[in-house]
Write a structure and sequence with these properties.
The protein is of the alpha/beta class and 326 residues long. The protein folds into two domains: 192 residues, 3-Layer(aba) Sandwich (Aspartate Aminotransferase, domain 2); 122 residues, Aspartate Aminotransferase, domain 1 (Alpha-Beta Complex). Helix content is 43%, strand content 17%. The protein contains twelve helices and twelve strands. The strands form three sheets. The protein has a seven-stranded mixed beta sheet with strand order 1-9-8-7-6-2-3, with helices on both faces. α1 packs across α2, α8 runs parallel beside α12 and α10 packs across α11. It binds pyridoxal-5'-phosphate (PLP). The site of pyridoxal-5'-phosphate has 13 residues, from α1.
Length: 326
């Protein structure tokens, strides 16, 4: 049970994360991120002038897993760890065992855990969300802060409201010195209405999203052999392995050529974003923006009607069918 007096309101998860990074991570220090990981975290690091320490996850039997040896080596030189549960973009819902292991390592190396649980309501059937603050180890929980919002659950991002909390009063007091929330009356009213009266609506929305996740997974597995995908455990995102397509369309070569004349880096995944836009009229997010582990992938937002989703997938399947066979 969270002590309501320990909740700090914020104008978004990002402002809370940035204030916390500024509190625990001096400019130039390193922040641990398990990649592929939410691209917005890299913006938070820029805002707090800290450096990303990417720990690449590995795919084991189709699921992303943390390489705990690498994680520990890197945690040892980081002031903070940005944890995302459920994870954007892979959709992983971390188990209690995994969270405890991350927690133990971070506690050992005095790496403060920032648990971003903004996607916590999007948990697919058969999966269990474990709030970091509910872990059965007081010291591990006291080494963390948790960040949440209703903005994903009720599509209220424009209302600019979120909250964070910690069982560690000292942590919270220190963060509050670097934090200020400019909330709006409309945002407060909208959040209150959603949180107090939106449960039935969300139960139906979640059922629908779970159906979308099943639909996308079976559609891709049955009809798009060039893309590898596994149903996400959580979130409304689909993480697509398009590395075969990258090879066939020569996206690495195109990216290298463009990179020579561009002031900004050009990645094969950026080339693919353009390619899918032009050839399938579907806008996917380039995997390369999710850290080093995002290579060869694209992220698809599936929080839409099944009808639209089918059109998007049909378009992708047709565009890939037009490619020369190799
Ligand atoms: C993991 C994660 N954290 C934070 C955010 C955004 O948070 P906010 O709009 O509250 O700053 C997003 C939005 O995509 C997200 O996926």
């Amino acid at each position: 049970m969270i002590d309501p007096s320990s909740l700090v309101l914020a104008t978004g998860v990002h402002p809370g994360l940035i204030a916390t990074l500024k509190t625990f991570s001096p400019p130039g220090s390193r922040t641990l991120i398990c990649t592929p990981s939410y691209n917005g975290f890299y913006g938070d690091l820029r805002a707090s002038k800290t450096i990303a320490e990417d720990s690449m996850m590995t795919v084991v039997n189709g699921r992303y897993e943390i390489d705990f040896d690498d994680f520990e080596r890197k945690a040892a030189r980081c002031n903070a760890y940005l944890l995302c549960n459920p994870q954007n973009p892979t959709g992983n819902v971390w188990t209690e065992e995994e969270l405890l292991r991350m927690g133990e390592i971070c506690l050992k190396h005095k790496t403060v855990i920032l648990a971003d649980e903004i996607h916590c309501d999007f948990v697919m059937k058969g999966q269990t969300y474990t709030p970091f603050a509910s872990l059965p180890d007081r010291d591990i929980v006291n080494n963390s802060l948790t960040f949440k919002a209703a903005s994903k659950t009720f599509s209220l991002a424009a209302m600019k409201a979120a909250w964070f909390f910690s069982t560690n009063e000292d942590f919270l007091n220190r963060v509050k010195e670097n934090h200020r929330a400019d909330l709006t009356s409309l945002g407060m009213v909208a959040n209150r209405a959603a949180l107090t009266e939106g449960e039935d609506w969300f139960d139906q929305a979640l059922e629908y999203i779970d159906g979308n996740q099943d639909f996308v997974a079976s559609y891709i597995n049955e009809n798009i052999p060039l893309i590898t995908h596994r149903k996400a455990e959580g979130t409304y995102l689909a993480w697509l392995d398009v590395s075969k397509v990258i090879d066939i369309v020569g996206a690495k070569e195109t990216a290298a050529q463009r990179g020579r004349i561009s002031t900004d880096p050009v990645t094969p995944e950026m080339v693919m974003q353009e390619w899918f836009g032009q050839n399938a009229r579907v806008d996917l997010n380039a995997g390369s923006s999710y850290g080093t582990g995002g290579a060869g992938h694209m992220r698809m937002n599936i929080a839409t009607s099944r009808k639209l989703l089918k059109i998007a997938l049909d378009n992708i399947a047709e565009a890939l069918d037009r490619l020369p066979r190799v």
